[in-house]
Amino acid sequence: MSENKTKKSLSFWQFLCLAAATxxxxxxxxxxxxxxxRLPLGxxxxxxxxxxxxxxxxxxxxxxxxxxxKKKVHxxxxxxxxxxxxxxxxxxxxxxxxxxxxxxxxWRLWGVFFPILTSTSVLLAGLVFSILAQPYLYDLxxxxxxxxxxxxxxxxxxxxxxxxxxxxxxxxxIYGMYLILYFAWGMFLARxxxxxxxxxxxxxxxxxxxxxxxxxxAGFNGVYWYQxxxxxxxxxxxxxxxxxxxxxxxxxxxxxxxxIFKKTILSFTKQEMRYxxxxxxxxxxxxxxxxxxxxxxxxxxxFNKLLMxxxxxxxxxxxxxxxxxxxxxxxxxxxxxxxxxKYDDLADIILATWNSFKHWAYEHRVKLMxxxxxxxxxxxxxxxESDNLRIQITTATDINAVIFLxxxxxxxxxxxxxxxxxMFSIFYFITTxxxxxxxxxxxxxxxxxxxxxxxxxxRGEPIYPSELSEAANFKTLAPMVGAQKLIMIAIALILIIAxxxxxxxxxxxxxxxxWKRRGIWALLSVLLFLTPARFNxxxxxxxxxxxxxxxxQSFRNPERDIQINGPVLNFLNYIDLQIMNKxxxxxxxxxxxxxxxxxxxxxxxxxxxxxxxxxxxVVFNLSESFVxxxxxxxxxxxKSVPNPVKFIQSMQKRATYGNMLSAGYGGGxxxxxxxxxxxxxxxxxxxxxxxxxxxxxxxxxxxTIGMNFDxxxxxxxxxxxxxxxxxxxxxxxxxxxxxxxxxxxxxAQKKLGKSSYNSDFTTYANGLRQINxxxxxxxxxxxSIQNHMPYNDWYPKNEYMGKISGDLFKSGAVKxxxxxxxxxxxxxxQAVKEFIGKIDKINKPIxxxxxGDHYPSILSQSxxxxxxxxxxxxxxxxxxxxxxxxxxxxxxxxxxxxFVNTSDFIALMLEQTNSKVTPYQALLxxxxxxxxxxTINYDGDKGFELIDQKGKKVDPKTLTSEQRALxxxxxxVQYDMTAGDxxxxxxxxxxx
Length: 992
Prior knowledge:
Layout: H1 2-6, H2 12-27, H3 33-37, H4 42-45, H5 48-67, H6 76-99, H7 106-113, H8 122-143, H9 146-164, H10 180-191, H11 196-230, H12 248-260, H13 262-266, H14 270-284, H15 288-291, H16 301-326, H17 331-341, H18 346-363, H19 365-385, E1 390-392, E2 398-400, H20 401-408, H21 410-431, H22 434-459, H23 474-481, H24 483-506, H25 515-528, H26 541-548, H27 558-573, H28 588-606, E3 617-623, E4 636-637, H29 646-650, E5 656-661, H30 669-678, H31 691-694, E6 712-719, H32 725-731, E7 736-740, H33 760-773, E8 778-783, E9 804-805, H34 812-839, E10 846-852, H35 863-866, E11 873-880, H36 882-886, E12 899-901, H37 905-912, H38 919-930, E13 933-936, E14 944-947, E15 953-954, H39 961-976, H40 983-986
Parallel strand pairs: 3-8, 3-10, 5-12, 6-7, 6-8
Antiparallel strand pairs: 1-2, 4-9, 5-11, 10-11, 13-14, 14-15
Helix pairs in contact: 2-14, 2-16, 5-8, 5-10, 5-12, 6-8, 6-14, 6-17, 8-10, 9-10, 11-12, 14-16, 19-21, 19-22, 19-27, 21-22, 21-25, 21-27, 22-24, 22-27, 28-38, 33-34, 37-38, 38-39
């Protein structure tokens, strides 16, 4: 500390040298190569910035070596360098993240505190290594003669260049070891007296070396590109091997510069060398370029950079003064230096540090073990969600889950650990029992992970916050979980309780700290659990910190999301669900304008339409998991067995027929249902959600196609409480909802084989009863359940067993499930045939819109990446009975019917029944006719996807201005009825 008192002020020449060095070093944060390339002799000058960068890597260690050559340096000096670097990095990153909060990343923060381990700066690492090696270099150089020292240094310099061929890239800290050589050069040159003759020859050698490097690099660069362009170059050799920190020519150049300024260099002290640590950080830190981005103060980019350089020079000077006065007065830093100064040898320091660490670890063993356990617990919860310890990382690639999670999801696991520890703090404050709190956290975490995995396997999606209320349906959930699993869970809970009691009695643990301290931690933990309410608010502090922990939800591929984010974070990510981005100019006047705009279009359409939809009977028939088996990719059905969907395939000739794009795989029934009833589209949402649960309840009344009828109802021969259907149908103003347990009895209940579900024959029997119950027109939302998973060999005498093959099958169990599914589809085909036959005999206009809601969850969801459109395409048809056709309905539509979205059904149905449209329905008609089919992004990204009539993706950039305007109108209306103020309900005649 006496150094501060005896330090003299710098001379003008010293100050000028320091300023010039700082300026040149900071310029390396910018890329001036391209700018200099535009100057005269640009082909030569554009390599100058790289030469300066490489020269700096040589000169700076030399200068440090010279200044630290006077006596042995204590290893604590390396610790000082590290502290200076860390504090500077902390300040730099705080400013950087304040300017660019979206670039916050925990890996970068890790680099702040461990700059050597994370290769933050090779030059810093080289100086730290050099300081640690200095005592050994000091002794060695004094044992050898000047000639021996020179011979060794020259030999090492030449050997380093020869063995690397000038290709050594100083990107990682380990290469800082090489810079010890130049530190040794500085130590040697500092104590050697250089005669004028040797100086002249060295000076001449430096000039020649400079010319050789400058001309040689440009020349070899020209040769290289000539070979590439002429096709003569097979291997890409290093054309800049002369311009490399290992190049002897570069070394001679730098030694020349060193000798010119040797006297000034030797006049510097440790204080000035410490000053360069912040300069090196600003020059070489990974964010250097972004951090040094100049503000546009003037119109000249070059002048702005100059102002930024001057500002940063002043910052470096200011930091140096602050560090000198305050930094090592900070208690932990001062104690660390005093601790290190107790030992002179590096080996003794390492041993003492290790012993001190062991003592600290023992003192805090409970905290460390608790955190370690929670990290293991967190990691285990991630692994539970993997697919046989494999995780799909791209659309066509999967990887070992352990390697992927530990290698790339480390901080997502850490964030989960933080939440688990917060949960523990709350429990511990309440119970004051360590083992009880720990076991509670463990049971909840593992239980939650298993519950999510069960739903993931069954439905291809995790548990959402909106579905917690579904836990009340225990009678339905229990069969899905299985009696065996329930028994195992009960036994496990009993054992856990017994273990907990045993540990609390035999091995009680009391954490240190008063109840006030525990209360503070519990309060902070509660506040932490409030942060997910801001996870998805773009631009917010919590949003950026959350994403900085690698917790990035795509909201489009639920399976992958939970695998890479874990069950805890995945659930928390859905708490703050952002529905849609607010369109520009969204307001009541905008919606009223759209009402006027599409009212005119509706009038035009209605000139050629003669029917009123409320006089028709329209049935929207969602057929659970129905897919034409012949459309499964690669799957083949033996020709010896009957065609399971012969009748439905025959509808291609007598009805509107094609492929419906589903937004789900193995699940999402309610989402498809919502699209058909509203005409709105899942692809417009910012994230994966269930509108029935997260959107519809926001409104007292919700518009659907049913509002155009005097009577509307729903029939579902299953439990009706899922997805808030009972409450939502009330919001739809449905007159009736028939389901198991409702006041309306489900008739003709018939289960096929060993299946626990009511068959499609039951569905259509109840649908037919409802059709006949009303004399006038009506709307019926008819939902089947027969082909719902699982597919456990329900049907006896199944002729499809052993008759199915395909590349997608990985096991006999999958083949058995597929055979069960296809047999069920055959029963559906028979039931549909019978239903169509009966409505054809009814003397009133009836139109049925039949569609499968999604693929069955038999094949691994990973195959959807390989066949995205195929495995999201189900069959649909729109059939109008004989009476309807005789009274104006069309037999079939042929334009744009091959690939449609569920949201297109309203427009298609109205066109086929020749019915008049409202302004909103006119908009839906335009969307169907003039835009490709809109669906979710099947690659798992945000935003929608467009599919043409051949099932191929359409780039949104290729849309015409008219199409984009139409899309914007559609988006504005959807926003209004999902995240907006429902102005459309107030607009007269917009929906009905």
